[in-house]
Amino acid sequence: MDPYPGIPRLTASAYPHIFEWFFVLGMEVMAQSDERWACRIKKYLIQILGLLEELNQYREPSPVDQVLEYIHTNYSRKITLEDLSETAHLNRVTLNKQFQERCGSTAMGYLLSYRLKVASELLTHTDMNLNDIARATGFEYDTYFIKQFTSKKGISPTTYRNNSRKFSNVQ
Q: What is the pLDDT of residues 110-138, one digit of tens each?
C-alpha cells in the first residue's frame, strides 16, 4: 500500500542525493553557526523540492494513478467498475489487484471511502441537507448514503455533523 498517493516514489539514483541533503540540513539546524544558516537550509530544501518535482514530471502515471485521478475528478457522478477498468486499460481483476497493493482496497472500495471522506467534510463545513450531500458525492439515493455512512463510520451522518461541529468549535 502506498501511504502517500500522488507523491513520486524515490528512484535509486535520487535517494542518495535527498538523503545527503537532509543530513546536511540536519547538521545546519544543529550547528546554526552563523547568520546565513537559514539561507543554506532554504537552498537545500529548494534542491530537494526541485528533485521531487523532476521525478514527478518524468514519471509515467501508473494505471492506479490514472484511476485515482479519475475518481478524484468524477466522484460525484455515477462510476462503475467498468469505467475504472477502461480508464486504467486493465481488466477488473488486474485493476483490483494493483489497487489493493497500492491503496489497501479495491477500486470501488476506494471510491466509496473517498465519497464518504468528501461527505464528512460537507457535513462539517456546510449546511447542505443529507439529500444534497448524497447527490454531490455520487450517491443516487440519500437512504443508501446514510446506510453506507453509518456502516463505515459507525455513526449516522447527522450525529457525525453535530459531533464534528462541536469539536471544530472547541479548537
A: 999 999 999 999 999 899 999 999 999 99
Same domain flag for 48 and 68: no
Cα diameter, the chain: 63
| Distance (Å, whole) CA 28 – CA 21 | 10
Same domain, 80 and 35: no
SS3 106: coil
| Rounded alpha-carbon distances, angstroms, from residue 61 to 22, 56, 67 | 27, 9, 10
Give the Cα separation of 93 and 99 in Å (integer): 10
- The C-alpha atoms of residue 119 and residue 130 are separated, in whole angstroms, by 9
Residue in 133, 168, 171, 170 with CA at minimum distance from that of residue 156: 133
DSSP helix/strand/coil, 11: coil
Residue-range definition of the domain harbouring residue 123: 112-170
Closest CA to 164 of 130, 113, 111, 126: 126
Grid cell, residue 92, equals 477488473
